[in-house]
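Weekend entry, working from home. Most of the wet-lab plans are on hold until the incubator is repaired, so I used the time to fold the two sequences that have been sitting in the queue since the last round of cloning. Logging both here for the record. First:
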Amino acid sequence: MKELELKYGCNPNQKPSRIFMENGSDLPIKVLNGRPGYINFLDAFNGWQLVRELKQATGLPAATSFKHVSPAGAAVGLPLSEIEKKIYWVADMGDLSPLASAYARARGADRMSSFGDFISLSDVCDVSTALLIKREVSDGVIAPGYEPEALEILKAKKKGGYNVIEIDPNYVPDPIERKQVFGVSFEQGRNELKIDEAFLNNMVTKNTVFSKQAKIDLMIALITLKYTQSNSVCYVKGGQAIGIGAGQQSRIHCTRLAGNKADNWYLRQNPKVLNLQFVDKLGRADRDNAIDVYISDDYMDVLADGIWENIFKVKPEVFTREEKRAWLDTLTDVALGSDAFFPFGDNIERAHRSGVTVIAQPGGSIRDDNVIEMCDKYGIAMCFTGLRLFHH
């Protein structure tokens, strides 16, 4: 297949639309089911690059959950804790395969943002992963292959319209990439720089210790940022992104946005949240929304009389600001990556409040000394990668 006609572009009025190879060769993908759209393919191709590089860097199966050309979550296939199984709504699914665990973690980190996602998998999709995808609201999936039973499970999703794409894992794109904006052609060399532990050696703080897990988490953060719309910042813990701040004009806004998401991920593990008793009829998406509101300052939107009865069997106690802060103060061993330098120490102050203990960033700000000083104040270990990762 040398080209594929699409229903429309980014919006229904943008026609005609297609994907094709400029050199006349065959496309490196096969559509096994459904009819993927323009944005679906943007998410699929960006997500596939991300999980392929995560697999290469860590040796572990990887998955990402994409929305609007940025990842909502990304993770490698490490086992889930009992608490993680509960907050990701997979406690009833038994033992998950490593690939399914990767997707459960990628989807679960920010379930509100992942709703209606496009999934990318580094490995052949197995039945365990397909069964997990089956129960989530999603637009489609891309993987290097599918087990026959897994493919049948996915084909039945969305009344037979679920988008399933198979990509050639051996496909290597041309070293020069092009696109047009306002009729003007842009051309640049592909960002083929391989991210590995070698980029984590230039320590600039008093604390120079990166544990093995910290190095894995920092590589996950940097690779995730490589395919996140800039400006971007990524918090990672235990092999999964727990907060991604994408597309902000200000670096501190990225840090705050991603930090707030990381905080929400951890607040969901508090016993007050774990013990919420939802009415039986409430679906997972409504539960996710209720939890998101309950742990926010707008908690009365779900606790007011006449409202809570439709959500909970028993009216929950207020999760006070003091209780939340005390719980967040126990979060630690979080890794932070940034796609460009931190211009001010306020980014480090905000990161510290979300448990960050290790940082990788390019460096190169005229205020690097201030940023380093702030890291030393909190005992944070930071390296300069010299590697900017803007993605547009």
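Second, folded right after the first finished:
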Amino acid sequence: MIVKILSKFGLPFLIKIVQTGLEKLGSSVAQNANQALGNVQKAISTQEITNSELEEANRHLEKMQELENELDTNTLNSIHEIMKQELSAEDKFVRFWRPAFGYSVALAWLLTMATVCYVILAQYQNAEQIINALVETTSLWSVALGVLGLQVVKSTQEKTPPSQSKMISKIVNKIK
């Protein structure tokens, strides 16, 4: 996200934003960083850092944004390929397990939250204990989402979509 902002507005804009945030911190390290950024801002305004150097920094940020967009596109294409293969599978379970699991988890979450809302609105005496007990359901949700993750890992190995590591190394080589 910062790369997107920088590619639109540039390095001086980022310096102002960071300085504003650092001014609010009381730490001596933050104040030193704020002063250093102030020095950079002065160097930009007095042309010690030339416009061509700023343009080069902004060009680099634009290139980083392009590479980030390419990685996002490749990731979405990989996900799309996996989903297409699942939908075209002969086995009904392979085609429908993901929506069925997603709907069941969503329904369970909805019922849990509706129950909590009812307990609060009905002003049950032990509402605080019930809400605190929700912490115990963390493992339940972890297991449910873990099952989804394990299935994705297993199906990814079987379907062999384009490897993320290959995409990342390709992008890194473009930067060099």
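Plan for Monday: verify the second prediction. The first helix runs from residue 2 to 9.
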